[in-house]
Amino acid sequence: MSKLPSPLRRNAPRFGGGDRAGIMQQSRLAGPMPWVIGIMMALTVIAAGAGLALRNLAQNARAEIAGGVTLQILEGGPAERARQAEVAVALLSNREDVAEVRRVPDAEIEALLEPWLGAQDVPEEDAIAVPALIDVRLVGPVTPRRLDELRAALAGSVPSARIDAQASWLAPVFDAIRSLQWLTLGLVTLLAATTAAAVWLAARSALGSNRDTVEIIHLLGGTDGQIARLFQRSIGLDAALGGFAGLLLGLATLALLGRQFARLGSGMIAGGSFGLTDWAVLAALPLLGMVLAMLTARLTVLAALRRML
Amino acid sequence: MSGGEGTIVQFDNVGLRYGTEREVLSDVSFALYPGSFYFLTGASGAGKTSLLKLLYLAQRPSRGVIRMFGTDVITLPRQALPAFRRRIGVVFQDFRLVPHLSAFDNVALPLRVSGVPESEIRKPVADMLDWVGLEQRHDARPATLSGGEQQRVAIARAVIGRPEILVADEPTGNVDPDLALKLLRLFEALNRLGTTVVVATHDVHLLKKVPDSLIMRLDRGRLADPTGALRYPPRREVS
Predict the structure, then answer these.
(1) Mind listing the pLDDT tens digit for each residue in A180-239?
(2) CB B78 within 8 A of CB A218
(3) Which residues of A touch B59 (CB under 8 A)?
(4) Which residue of A140, B20, B87, B157 shows the fewest CB atoms closer than 10 Å?
(5) Is the CB of B115 less than 8 angstroms away from the CB of A217?
(6) How would you class B138 by CB atoms within 10 Å of its CB: exposed for 0-12, middle for 13-18, buried for 19 or more?
């Protein structure tokens, strides 16, 4: 017999020769796990992608209308309406807190309203009275106090003026977007919880299948940590494999959806496109999934082993 | 019984019961000395396997005190047990080889559990398998090995880590008399290297084969110690 090593003095956290997953039967650990994790990951990527797109869309829309104020001249008489509009434009252009003033041309307003009111090819006095619109961009954000100041400034010379912050028009849309964002966050959380539950079941099943081997390792002086590491490594590999496949599937779905939405030609929806950070977040999801799966497997196995001597 | 200087294992009024059944071991007190060879005998159901389970720390007693390597192992937290188990080699009655691992990997398991690097594993394991006469069967799975070969793999696994105590439960139960004698010589060789050996057997012929051995006889869960050699301090010197 050659000189034997002295393993008894060692208290290594890992098995010698690396954490040899071969000690446990791999076929019992693998099974449907990569598929389950793959499907969960694809759904997570889609939900997270939708959430990020909604966030980008809302942010871009907010930035676009930040400082935006709409001034309506609610005057029935076309001549008086035109006069008040000119006065308002002149007054607002001279203010230091106003960055930009643009009267929306009547032709543009008519084109906007045509789908609802039809073509206004009648004499001006017979046409439906439509307010004159002035698009105002303030320096800095719109606050109720600043709106009140504008109203006060225009009250004397432009009595038919009505001033609204553009953000208030879109407030219900932003509320809806925020709700959808919460929904996607909830979906991602639920999917993560479901993945953790699937891993919990798989780890318990694998532990049951390998119970005899686990007992032998215990009796040979193996620690709970060493045994748990075998399971977490195996499930980590499953999660990596499934997670990568799920990421590809999710990204392909997002790309397809993105192309469909791009065809709508809406400026607001175009604002939902992904930036570099968003792609990085989506790419990191399989990694997070793997960490979650490994942590769940480890805690599950450690909890089960604690009940053994 | 107290103190226990010079002993490697000391049982003091140990009792063991499973659930609410009657005690399978009662008032068991003895001391084992380093480098000694012990036979544990008794009829079937006398409690031999239960006593061995306490020895290789697979079971905690219902009462009493067990000291191993100078430490009270009853009050030890379970996280501390692996370090003690690594000092004990066990040959199970049913071998308990890992079925999907080769003979080589089964024997290497205690070293891998102890974190020995792979480069330091190959030669000692190969030598150990050669030592038990399985030089041609390194890659064989347990299912393809005969009972005697499995027995030898189990023994090789038990001794590969040079344990301070070797516990063997009916190690010759499945082998022919010639092989039984050969295995016994193997235990003796290990014993000469300083390992305390405890062999549970109901084969009375085996007891005479190791002249300097001490005999622990269990009878319905109680340890008979007519010579007092198992007590601490002993009535006579243990050779």
Answers:
(1) 999 999 999 999 999 999 999 989 988 888 899 999 999 999 999 999 998 888 899 999
(2) no
(3) 309
(4) B20
(5) no
(6) middle
A267 part of contact set with chain B, CB < 8 Å: no
CB contact under 8 A, A4 and B162: yes
Q: Is the pLDDT of residue A21 over 50?
A: no
Helices A276-305 & A224-262 angle (0-180, nearest 10): 150
- The CA distance from A278 to A274, in Å, is 6
Residue B61 to chain A, least CA–CA distance (Å) = 12
Q: Convert A59-83 to b/e letters by CB count within 10 Å (16 or more is b).
A: ebbeeebebbbbbbbebeeeeebeb
Measured between beta carbons, which residues in chain B are less than 8 angstroms from residue A6? 162
Q: In terms of CA atoms, which chain A residue is nearest residue B56?
A: A219
Q: A54 is written with which tokens?
A: 């909604």
Size (chain A), residues: 309
CA pair distance A2, A116, nearest whole angstrom: 96
Among B83-92, B95-104, B197-206, the minimum mean pLDDT is found in: B197-206
Please say if the pLDDT value at position B208 is more than 50.
yes
Q: Please indicate if any CB of chain B lies within 8 Å of the CB of A213.
A: yes
| pLDDT score for A10 | 47
**pLDDT tens digit string along A135-188?**
998 888 888 888 898 899 888 888 988 998 887 777 888 899 999 999 999 999
Contacts of residue A217 in chain B, CB cutoff 8 Å? Answer: 109, 113
* Res A60: pLDDT: 83
Contact B98/B105 with Cβ under 8 angstroms?
Answer: yes
Which residue does chain B place closest to A218, by CA atoms? B82
Report yes or no on whether pTM surpasses 0.90.
Answer: no
| Contact yes or no for A221 and B58 at CB 8 A | no
Q: Pull the structure tokens for residue A196.
A: 């953790």
Phi, psi values for residue B14, rounded to 5°: -80, 135
Put simply, whether A16 touches B (Cβ < 8 Å) is yes
